[in-house]
UniProtKB/TrEMBL annotation:
Pfam families: GGDEF_2 (PF17853), HTH_30 (PF13556). Residues 166-287 form the CdaR GGDEF-like domain. This is PucR-like helix-turn-helix protein. Belongs to the CdaR family. Residues 340-395 form the PucR C-terminal helix-turn-helix domain. Coiled coil: none annotated. InterPro entries: CdaR-like_regulators (IPR051448), CdaR_GGDEF (IPR041522), GAF-like_dom_sf (IPR029016), PucR_C-HTH_dom (IPR025736), PucR_C-HTH_sf (IPR042070). SUPFAM superfamilies: GAF domain-like (SSF55781). Gene3D superfamilies: 3.30.450.40, PucR C-terminal helix-turn-helix domain.
């Protein structure tokens, strides 16, 4: 059977079962469908006509956890005119590549043999879709190579990449706003399905919100970045829609065991400036990953001190943290009471009353702790420079610890 013969697989199973069969991609967009056998419902008809189903259908489907299923299961939606379905995940080499659907009528219920045939077809479909994935990845190598050169530190390579983008018409003409969105997953508790294409599918979902030619992407299993080429700058609402759709699709496919963070650059006005936007997006996604208080979507220019601190390489951050006056404080503060006090003091703009209230201590106790901190660090908290030194030291220490815990770094 040809590696492109997904339709034949669907027709063959439908003929043997005398049932309607459909296969969708991981975003529940139709890839192949058989003819009807009198068991069709309004949802199937909508899917065939539109090649997809509305979000108010996909959301409850993913809420059932189908993105993490490895075995067939029943899916019944509270949608008018919708019948109960058997959902068979289409996988190959642990990757979720789609879903096979059979309508399961009470008048003509699926037998165990029917389910086994569906599983066998799903397995063969998985091999076909995996082969397609490999072909697509190979065909994308040239495009990705150009994009990578577009953001490299080598000026000659960037200049050639700009010429290649224009010559091969990879992006929409007359674009005057370029923006980069970087995304990364962080797996809290690795599971069997963690090595999937959820990141790639999520970014593709973001691309679907844009006109053709308005975006290009580079993706691997744990991270990706998206270059937007626009004739008009995105509004805050449009940008929020893109990041929300990517995040939602990722979690629908991967569940909640992984954190998905997004970094957004400012816009630049020319292709030869995209490398700057890329660096901004990478710093923003690093900030979102390393500084949870920033949230899961971080935008360049709104990172506070981190848009400066995270320009430093990881080893420089670790070195700066290690040489801070805080090292003397840490040696004498095994319970981290003084460090916690100092952090609260800075977080509350050095306001004594607010800091004491936050820590639930008397002001006199706070004054005593601050005096002890001055003695141990040889810093004067009445000095702006000394305050800055200690505050930066705390930030560097937190970043160094977060970098140690992180398993993925971005090339700059």
């Amino acid at each position: 059977m040809s590696t492109n013969d997904l339709q034949s697989l669907v027709d063959d199973l439908a003929g043997r079962l005398r049932r309607s069969v459909a296969i969708d991609d991981p975003s529940i967009r139709l890839l192949a469908a058989s003819r009807h056998f009198g068991d069709e419902d309004s949802l199937r008809i909508t899917s065939i006509l539109n090649r997809s189903v509305p979000d108010d259908v996909t959301r409850p489907l993913f809420a059932l956890g189908i993105g993490t299923w490895v075995k067939p299961g029943r899916a019944h939606l509270d949608v008018p005119g919708s019948k109960k379905r058997l959902c068979v995940p289409v996988r190959c080499k642990s990757l979720l590549l789609g879903f096979l659907w059979l309508i399961d009528n009470e008048e003509n219920p699926l037998t165990e043999s029917d389910v086994e045939m569906a599983e066998d077809t799903a397995a063969r479909a998985g091999m076909i879709l995996y082969a397609r994935l490999l072909l697509r990845e190979r065909s994308n190598l040239r495009r990705e190579a150009i994009l990578r050169n577009l953001v490299t530190s080598a000026e000659d390579a960037r200049r050639q990449a700009v010429a290649d983008v224009l010559a091969e018409q990879l992006l929409v003409e007359h674009a005057s706003y370029y923006q980069v969105i970087a995304v990364q997953r962080e797996i809290a508790h690795p599971v069997e399905t963690s090595d999937d294409i959820a990141v790639e599918v999520a970014v593709q979902e973001g691309l679907h919100t844009l006109p053709d030619g308005a975006g290009l992407m580079v993706a691997d299993r744990s991270r990706a970045w998206l270059l937007l080429a626009l004739t008009e700058a995105l509004t805050k609402q449009q940008l929020g829609s893109i990041t929300q759709r990517m995040t939602s699709r990722f979690h629908q496919l991967s569940g909640n065991d992984s954190r998905f963070v997004v970094g957004v650059s400012d816009t630049v006005s020319a292709l030869d400036q995209v490398y700057r936007a890329y660096r901004q997006a990478v710093i923003a996604v690093r900030a979102a990953l390393l500084v949870p208080s920033l949230g899961n979507v971080a935008k360049w220019g709104r990172l506070g001190p981190y848009d400066t601190l995270l320009r430093l390489p990881n080893d420089e951050i670790a070195s700066a943290a290690g040489s801070s006056p805080l090292q003397r404080l840490e040696a004498a503060d095994r319970q981290q009471v003084l460090e916690t006090t100092l952090r609260a003091f800075f977080d509350n703009a050095c306001d004594i009353r607010r800091t004491a209230n936050l820590l639930c201590i008397h002001r006199a106790t706070l004054y005593q702790r601050l005096k002890r901190i001055e003695q141990l660090t040889d810093c004067n908290l009445d000095s702006g420079d000394d305050r800055l030194t200690l505050h930066l030291g705390l930030k560097m220490k937190a970043l160094a610890a977060a970098n140690t815990a992180s398993t993925t770094s971005w090339p700059l």
